Amino acid sequence: MKLKGEYIFKGPREEVWQIVRDPEVLMTALPGAQSLKQIGENEYEGEMYIRVGPVSGIFSGRVLVSDEVPPESYTLTVEGKGKAGFANGSGHVHLIDQGDGTTLMKYEGEVQIGGRLASVGQRLIDTVSKSMIRQGLETLDQALQARLAAKAEGKENVENYRPPSEMEFAMAVAKDMAGEALSSRRWIWIAIAVVVVIIIVALVLIGRGGG
Questions:
Q1: Which residues sit opposite 57 in a β-bridge?
Q2: More confident position, 199 or 25
């Protein structure tokens, strides 16, 4: 499965870089993140509790950060696993100063999926992954706006920022998938697919924490 896209953050590149290095903020971008610890110079290990429809449990993964060029780019190698299967992949993230106070993030990568997850259709995986990535980045952008507003007012504490709840996150994914007419059995497999994409996206996001 290939992942590729871009997103414009409403803030300068240096501030965006700081946001994607803040583990507390990053762990709010996707509900369920439980822990993140550094196990090597550029290697991290995390756990998430995921509940999507009939699928729930603890999922674990590792992220290796390489080719880091602050505040411009970095490469990630990801390994995630759970009862539903496993997902391994790598990707590259590039932050581009737009010159107008905004920052363009470009990302691309490829993920290999195994186990029961291999039975999930590619089109459905693509739909869910795009939804999850979009929501995660929008949440980070909201945190960025709150941080910039606090700095402008000379405040140390960020106010008026509330990350989406697990229910709000799940409902947004369901809305993006509303056009799919599927059997209940098929929805079970989609739920499993959502779990894996959550793990992948979350590890890509929280993989910057602790650096």
A1: 50
A2: 25
